[in-house]
Each structure stands twice: as structure tokens, then as C-alpha cells.
Design goal:
The complex is a heterodimer of chains A (135) and B (130). Chain A has helices spanning 20-31, 66-69, 83-88, 119-127, and strands spanning 6-11, 37-42, 79-82, 100-103, 109-112, 114-117, 131-134. Chain A has one domain (6-134): DsrEFH-like (Hypothetical Protein Ychn, Chain: A). Chain A is of the alpha/beta class and 135 residues long. Chain A is globular and about 45 Å long. Chain B is α/β, with parallel strands linked by helices. Chain B has a five-stranded parallel sheet, sandwiched between helices. The longest helix of chain B has 14 residues, at 16-29. Chain B has five helices and five strands, in the order βαβαβααβαβ. Classes of the chains: A alpha/beta (135), B alpha/beta (130). The A-B interface holds A 1, 3, 5, 7, 19-20, 23, 26-27, 30-31, 33-34, 36, 130-135 and B 6, 8, 40-41, 80-81, 111-113, 115-117, 119-121, 125, 127, 129.
């Protein structure tokens, strides 16, 4: 198991309404222990998963949005967000949580994890992956 | 080629479960290797041994079990997803003080690490989902 593969988790669904987002995050967290090259993509309603100010009080579900903020500590530092999906929903990067990671090779400087990409750019990143898991 | 298969939907509600089964069967018939089949999300429901579809319909759980027996398939059910949905084997049931268990013996319960390992070990990981 010494070979390092590129794993991409593609998040396509809203955080609540179905369990895909929550259970996808569980795979990401377990997968982080395997020392692979990990990235996440947020497309379609998946962009809602990392929106600011989520409040689940009214629906009686666990608000798990803070888990995304811990991804940096699991060395999951590449979060691709598709620009077209944001625009189609009237959102901008300012509507998203501030997600960062600490670069230990750069004096632990906090760096942004979110990478805003076009659909075409995301397709290129995706084509470069070894394993793509879609949720 | 070596495949790992991920099944994300339950039986009958979605064609996903049938498609995953048919792909797996076809791949084996063509001489390919199936490293593992991993059942996640509602896909864990494919492992219930208590399903009673009408007699003139297919029994997806039994189809998987027959294929597994013929080809020594590793059918793995995610423990976290299974517990959430009330899918337990005998061990899990007794450990959690439940009075029944429902996992078909052709399937085994294990963790998400088995899915990641499947992605690492196989040439292709194929996800069947909604």
C-alpha cells in the first residue's frame, strides 16, 4: 500500500434533505488516515454544504457544518468549488465558510483551502484523478 | 482489470443495485477481477436476509449471495451506515443489546477503511449511485 493515489470526493447534494453529504464527510475523514492525495469538489447543490451560517434548529438535524473546518487538520487542503454552480444559485465565495489549513512547510501559515474553479478547470483536475467517489 | 464496486442505493427502490450486480457479474464473466463490493448509504439494505420480494421478481440479496459463492466475492457492508439503518449481524446485535440480526451470511460488516483500501488496490473504483 505504498503507492499514493489521487482521491477526489465529489459532493453534489445539499447538506440536508438527504444523508449523502454527511456520509461523504465520514468517508473523507476515515480516508484521511490512508495518506493519499485527497481533494474535494463541490458542484451543483453540493456548494450549499460549505455555506456560511447554517442553522438546522428548525429541522431537528445535527448541524455538521463545523466538520468542514476541521478538514485542514486532517491534511485535506484542496477544496474545489465550481464557479458555475455558485453563480446558478446566486452565491459567491463570500457566502462560503472560511476554510483554511496550516502549511507546516511555510511557518504554519494559514492558507485558504477553497479553490474557485470553472467547470472546464474542474474537469481537468478530475481527469487527473485515480479514484473519483461521487456523493 | 481489477475493480472495486461501491453500491450506494438500496434494492428495488433504485435500479442502482441491479446495475451494480449486472456490472459485477459481466465483469467476472469477461475474466476481470472484483477486489471488493462495498455497500454504503442505503446500499447496506442489499444485505438484509429478511427481504421477501414477490416470487416472480428477482431477489437481489440472493443474487449477490449466489455470485459471491461462485466467485468468492468480498461483499462488505459499512458498519456505520448499517447501524444507522438497523442492519446488524449476530455479533453487532449482541454487542449492542439488540434482539435480532438480519445480515445475510454472504456479506460481512466492516469499516469505511475497506472502501478506501478498495480504491487503492483496484485499477478502477466504480460507484453505483443516484
Amino acid at each position: 500500500m505504498s503507492e499514493i493515489k489521487k482521491f477526489m470526493y465529489v459532493n453534489r447534494k445539499a447538506p440536508y434533505g438527504t444523508v449523502y453529504a454527511l456520509e461523504s464527510l465520514e468517508v473523507v475523514l476515515i480516508g484521511a488516515a490512508f495518506d493519499q492525495d485527497v481533494s474535494l469538489a463541490f458542484v451543483d447543490d453540493g456548494v450549499y454544504q460549505i455555506m456560511n451560517g447554517q442553522n438546522t434548529t428548525g429541522i431537528g438535524m445535527k448541524n455538521f457544518s463545523s466538520t468542514y473546518k476541521a478538514l485542514g487538520d486532517y491534511e485535506v487542503t484542496k477544496l474545489y468549488v465550481e464557479k458555475e454552480s455558485l453563480e446558478a444559485r446566486g452565491l459567491t465565495v463570500d457566502d462560503l465558510m472560511e476554510l483554511t489549513w496550516e502549511d507546516e512547510d511555510d511557518d504554519y501559515e494559514e492558507k485558504p483551502s477553497i479553490r474557485l474553479v470553472s467547470s472546464a478547470e474542474l474537469a481537468e483536475v478530475m481527469a487527473d484523478q485515480d479514484v473519483v467517489l461521487s456523493f | 482489470m481489477k475493480f472495486t464496486i461501491q453500491v450506494n442505493e438500496g434494492p428495488y427502490q433504485h435500479q442502482t443495485a441491479d446495475s451494480a450486480y449486472q456490472f459485477t457479474k459481466a465483469a467476472l464473466e469477461k475474466g476481470h477481477e472484483i477486489f471488493r463490493v462495498f455497500f454504503y448509504h442505503d446500499g447496506v439494505n442489499n444485505a438484509t436476509r429478511l427481504g421477501l420480494p414477490p416470487q416472480d421478481d428477482r431477489n437481489i440479496t440472493n443474487l449477490w449471495a449466489e455470485l459471491a459463492e461462485k466467485h468468492e466475492l468480498d461483499l462488505v457492508v459499512c458498519v456505520a451506515a448499517a447501524q444507522r439503518r438497523g442492519l446488524l449481524d449476530e455479533n453487532e446485535a449482541s454487542r449492542n443489546g439488540k434482539d435480532a440480526h438480519n445480515i445475510h451470511p454472504a456479506f460481512r460488516i466492516s469499516g469505511l477503511g475497506q472502501l478506501i483500501e478498495g480504491g487503492i488496490q483496484a485499477d478502477r473504483l466504480v460507484v453505483f449511485g443516484d
